[in-house]
Design a protein that fits this description.
By secondary structure, this protein is of the alpha/beta class. Among the domains are: about 290 residues, Peptidase S8/S53 domain (Rossmann fold), CATH 3.40.50.200; about 55 residues, no CATH class; about 300 residues, Autotransporter beta-domain (Lipocalin). The protein is about 15% helix and about 40% strand. The strands form 8 sheets. Strands 40-41-42-43-44-45-46-49-51-54-55-56 form a 12-stranded antiparallel beta barrel. Helix 4 runs parallel beside helix 10. The longest helix has 26 residues.
Length: about 950
């Protein structure tokens, strides 16, 4: 409940402070201007109300508060309008109780909310500027007359001390106005616009006099009105004050209050009156110290009046009148139109829009006569032209209308950071000069030319640049997206999304573009757009995922540009992923990234490589890996693989890489190593079993050379093996039936297959034992060998178009063999059949290739290979002078007891890969022919040997020398 106003308030202040703010017939003589002869509504045209009407703006949904004299809602201009009358004190006065009718409140409110009327003379009263608002009017009622002397200019000129009591800001008067503000807050909490067509007379014509007046206010006493204004501004209310009608250089004190309390400025407007000649009316005060929150608006117009007839009835009419009291509600109504136009703006932002779009008058810029200039609704409905510091705009698309999507078309010529929040979309069509922009959610669209002085951010939502953006930097966080078809002249970092599928064209960067590992570059097949890098400073550092969006209107699978460079621009690094559009794989199709010197292309192709379906064995496995590499980082950057992929798709063939890439040489090397102990085992057994009863210690040296070819098959490419080695051994007979020996062998081998070469350095140590049941020269015997070795494997794989892959590894070889046979001698002939089994274990360590995009990571492997052997050896001793010659013939058969091939397992870019050795023979036939010669303790010999099996052939020879101690 509002409190009773101070006794005599209305007579003392309302008549003196409120009514003189309009030059009314009741209290001041007319000062007619030509504008009073203008038809009703000229003031609307003058400030641009038709532009608001063209957008359908009437103030609908907006609530406006008015503090003034009692309202006469019976006036035809107010009938049917949404008007709520509040009283202070809260008892409705009887209008007939007083001979004097005060219609000021009715005149003011009709300027805001009045409806259009057709008058008796045929003219039309155009009504208020915002007829759709809901208006709450606090009517201040009369009290006893108690005249009080005004603070006069004479006091200032005479140097007399100014009284601390300044009318409406006197301690005894403030509670009444404070109660009026409180009454509005209680009954109209959504009324964010409060019109105040009252004021005190100015004291002096310079800023010093205004400051002296405010300095006289005692801060130690309560000031409820000032507190109420501060609370209202804090609650997002805008107070519009008439500057006053005293023709002074300074406004009335109430319009200048932000000079005393700067915290009020964001919620204050001071209004001066001008005529159609764009000059201040002769009655209006100037903006003075209120210039930074001051607007000019017409003060001469047709208003609603109420008069008492001689029979005490009331007359309701329309007449021309003048005053800043009428300019103020015209501004308040315009605020209401803008509140409807920009429902997401705060009152300070609407005030900023009004001030920044005002038509500049007088001296350039904000001046003490006109402030910001003439209210210009025609421009204001298109958004602000200047930001007052940092501004945050929150738009909720769920509310529809301008909440969901809006456009500001004015040039914004300065300001701080513009932050776009909420799910709605805001488009800027003007040329803007700001500190920066920040997108938190929804969408911000930039057209025309936008220049920023600080780093801009897209923290969430989307920034679309369809014009130009220039600044020191642009950062797009993980929750943000950048798109558009304009030009960005700012170093740009993308941690979020970059849209490269704008129907309007390419997004161009003239400075650096960094796509971080977390970024997503979105493209839509069939939409002809791309990322364009232009100029030597434009360097794109690629990274993150490329995500292909499904496109329902896609007529077919087509190639398109993803990135192009021009005028010295370039790109570097690569992407980390390529996400295919849904449904494409079901058609047997996919997209690949093709990196070319000046562009990156999205190319449509089959999911399988050319000819892949017809391949078998290692080639088929390799082709599957090569195809799988299309979904690995190796395919998402410029390099040999990407070059090969492009060429393969164009030529329709894989250029032999399907044979080479898998590293078959590693399987062939393992196969080779598994057969090395077999040759040493045969030599060891041959030396031990050739001892005679009581044989002295013999030292022997054996040199060998072997070559083997493993022919190609449907499962593997051909391989070739070469071995050169030396064996040093010693044997010793113990008695007539037992002989033992030991040997150390060193060989160098080379394996060539599928453009790979393995060089193997093998060192082995072996021990042998033969025990005869009768004697070493005649009869049955059994023998055994046991050995171990170490090898080092250096591998090179030549891959045309790629650098050579190099690997180095080592490992161990273990073997054990048993043999039984029978030696039969007759005359000079010796026949020896035998049978045996040898088992070899190869333990190869892991190999990590280097130096190539196609470098393999070859798994370690331990495996055992066993074989059974049959052999028949025939020799004859011939005496030639002092030499004993012994020609020999040996025939053999070997059968693998395990797998007939060896496999290697590796990974390429984390893709598992298996290769099968070229040697896949299970049955092997062999033969050797040799001659040994002995003279005394010295023995020498040589042999030639060969073997043959299914797609396997080998040949070799050896030389040996021995000495018996």
């Amino acid at each position: 409940m509002a409190c009773q106003p101070h006794d005599g308030f209305f007579k003392r202040y309302w008549k003196r402070a409120l009514l003189p703010a309009s030059i009314s017939l009741a209290f001041a003589p007319y000062s007619y201007s030509d504008d009073l002869e203008r038809p009703s509504g000229w003031e609307h045209d003058f400030i641009g109300v038709p532009a608001a009407r063209a957008l359908g703006l009437t103030g609908k949904g907006v609530e406006v508060g008015v503090i003034d004299s009692v309202l006469y809602p019976e006036h035809p201009a107010l009938q049917g309008q949404d008007v709520v009358q509040l009283f202070l004190p809260p008892t409705e006065p009887n209008a007939t109780d007083d001979d004097e009718v005060t219609d000021h409140g009715t005149s003011v409110s009709s300027i805001i909310v009045g409806r259009q009327l057709e008058l008796a003379d045929g003219s039309v009263y155009q009504g208020g500027a915002a007829p759709g608002v809901r208006l709450f009017q606090v009517g201040l009622t009369d009290g006893e007359d108690d005249e009080e002397e005004d603070v006069s200019t004479d006091m200032l000129e005479s140097g007399e001390e100014i009284d601390a009591s300044i009318g409406l800001l006197e301690p005894e008067s403030e509670p009444d106005l404070a109660e009026a503000v409180k009454l509005l807050r209680q009954n109209a909490p959504n009324a964010r616009i409060i019109n105040n067509s009252y004021n005190e007379d100015p004291i002096g014509d310079d800023a010093a006099s205004v400051d002296a007046m405010f300095a006289s206010i005692d801060p130690s006493v309560p000031h409820p009105y000032l507190d109420a204004l501060a609370e209202g501004v804090h609650e997002d209310r805008l107070f519009v004050f008439a500057a006053g009608n005293e023709s002074r250089a300074q406004p009335g004190p109430l319009a200048a209050l932000p000079r005393l309390m700067p915290e009020l400025e964001s919620g204050f407007l001071s209004v001066v009156a001008i005529g159609s000649d764009y000059e201040l009316t002769e009655y209006s005060n100037a903006c003075g110290v209120s210039k930074y929150w001051c607007l000019a608006a017409p003060g001469d117009m047709h208003i609603a009046i109420v008069q008492r007839n001689e029979d005490d009835s009331l007359f309701y009419g329309i007449r021309p009148d003048s005053g800043t009291s009428f300019a103020a509600p015209l501004v308040s109504a315009s605020v209401a139109l803008l509140a409807e136009r920009f429902p997401y703006m705060s009152m300070p932002q609407i005030r900023m829009t009004m001030l920044s779009t005002a038509t500049d008058l007088g001296e350039p810029g904000v001046d003490e006569e006109f402030g910001w200039g003439l209210l210009n609704l025609a421009d204001a409905v298109h958004g602000p032209a200047l930001l007052f510091g940092d501004q945050r705009v929150v738009m909720d698309a769920a509310l529809g209308g301008w909440h969901a999507s809006d456009t500001w078309s004015n040039d914004i010529t300065g300001g701080g950071v513009l932050s776009k929040a909420g799910s709605g979309s805001l488009q800027l069509l003007g040329n803007n000069r700001l500190e920066a922009i920040s997108v938190e959610a929804g969408e911000l669209v930039l057209n025309a030319d936008n220049q920023f002085s600080a780093t801009s951010e897209v923290r969430g939502g989307r920034l679309s640049v369809d014009g130009a953006l220039a600044g020191p930097a642009l950062n797009v966080d993980q929750a943000g997206e950048l798109g558009g078809s304009g030009t960005i002249t700012a170093p740009t970092r993308i941690d979020g999304a970059l849209a490269a599928y704008e129907p309007g064209g390419s997004l161009t960067f003239t400075q650096s573009l960094a796509l971080s590992p977390s970024s997503i570059t979105r493209a839509a097949p069939g939409v002809a757009s791309a990322i364009r890098m232009d100029g030597e400073a434009a360097v794109a550092t690629l990274g993150g995922q490329v995500q292909l969006e499904p496109h329902s209107d896609l007529p077919g699978v087509t190639d398109q540009m993803l990135l192009e460079t021009a005028n010295g621009a370039r790109y570097e690094a690569g992407f980390s992923g390529l996400q295919q559009p849904q449904g494409l794989a079901e058609q047997g199709l996919r997209y690949d990234l093709y990196f070319r010197p000046e562009s990156i292309l999205l190319s449509a192709a089959a999911t399988a490589l050319p000819g892949q379906a017809e391949l078998r064995g290692n080639a088929a496995r390799n082709a599957r890996v090569l195809n799988a590499l299309r979904d690995k980082p190796i395919a998402w950057k410029a390099g040999p693989y990407n070059d090969w992929l492009q060429a393969a798709q164009i030529r329709g063939q894989l250029d032999g890489l399907e044979q080479r890439v898998g590293g078959q040489v590693y399987a062939d090397s393992l196969s080779y190593l598994s057969r090395q102990p077999t040759r040493l085992n045969d030599l060891m057994h041959q030396q031990v079993s050739s001892d005679s009863s009581g044989q002295a210690t013999r030292v022997w040296l054996h040199g060998l050379h072997d070559s083997q070819t493993n022919s190609s098959s449907s499962s593997a490419a051909r391989s070739r093996e070469h071995t050169n080695g030396m064996v040093l051994g010693v044997t010793q007979a113990f008695g007539e039936r037992t002989s033992t020996g030991a040997a150390i062998a060193h060989s160098k081998g080379r394996v060539n297959s599928a453009s790979g070469k393995a060089e193997l350095d093998v060192t082995q140590l072996t021990f042998g034992l033969v025990h005869a049941f009768d004697s070493l020269e005649q009869g049955a015997y059994v023998g055994a060998t046991l050995g171990a070795g170490y090898f080092d494997n250096t591998t090179k794989r030549r891959l045309p178009g790629f650098t050579t892959a190099k690997g180095d590894s080592d490992g161990y070889i273990y073997h054990a063999g048993v043999k039984t046979g029978y030696r039969w001698q007759h005359n000079e002939w010796s026949i020896e059949p035998s049978a045996g089994v040898i088992s070899t274990t190869v333990d190869a360590k892991r190999t990590r290739e280097k130096n190539s995009e196609l470098a393999l990571d070859v798994n370690s492997k331990r495996f055992t290979d066993s074989s059974a052997q049959l052999q028949l050896r025939v020799s004859r001793a011939l005496q030639a002078d002092q030499w004993l010659l012994e020609p020999q013939l040996s025939l053999g058969y070997s059968r693998s007891l395990d797998s007939n091939s060896v496999t290697s397992n590796a990974s390429l870019q984390d893709i598992r890969l298996q290769q099968v050795s070229a040697n896949q023979n299970r049955n092997l036939f062999s033969a050797s022919l040799g001659v040994s010669a002995r003279r005394g303790p010295v023995s020498v010999g040589f042999d030639l040997h060969g073997s043959d099996g299914e797609r396997v052939s080998s040949s070799g020879g050896s030389l040996r020398v021995g000495y018996d101690f």
